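Sharing a chain and its predicted structure for anyone who wants a worked example. Both blocks are below, sequence first, tokens second.
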Amino acid sequence: MFYEPSKGHGLPHDPFKAIVAPRPIGWISTVSKDGALNLAPYSFFNAISSHPHLVMFSSEGEKDSVTFVRETGEFVANFASRNLAEKMNASSVDAPRGISEFGYAGLTPAPSQMVSPPRVADAYAALECKVVNILQPRGLDGASAGVTVVMGEVVGVHIDEDILSDGMFDYAKAQNLSRLGYRDYAAVTEVFEMLRPRWKAD
């Protein structure tokens, strides 16, 4: 089949997110200028550069994460793993401002080293970030897409050494959690290696 998104797909549910999957989950913790904590998962999240280390998350609507980021210029991207999936999902609750998702989801905030927002104490890894850019994309028609893209440079990295194997981050041990389409998630349970081809060598 073929369809133009602007004209509809004719399927029971939009397949777009299912096609662009799996997507890593940016479990973003922020703090307001007044000290209110926020924790929320974003499935539009990824690393976009390794020199410098840059990550981004995209929020559909001006949610507390974006509001607090605008106030402080900092956030933490916490690692979402299978063992914390239910708590990660609980932190997506539409709680009113002033209610900490850390407490609602039964999670403990731990101090960060380089930024003011806390990290998730039980997360296998966390990326402390300082904001470098905030964008509001537009569609082909010039209208606002209604999303805010936050880009941050990683200034500090936490790793639980229990999920290192021979000095390398062990995906299968950590069971990286990812978002698929619809209401579906997946966790890494199998890893295989492929070497990148080199023109002159081949």
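Comments welcome. Residues 16-187 form a domain with the Pnp Oxidase; Chain A fold (CATH 2.30.110.10).
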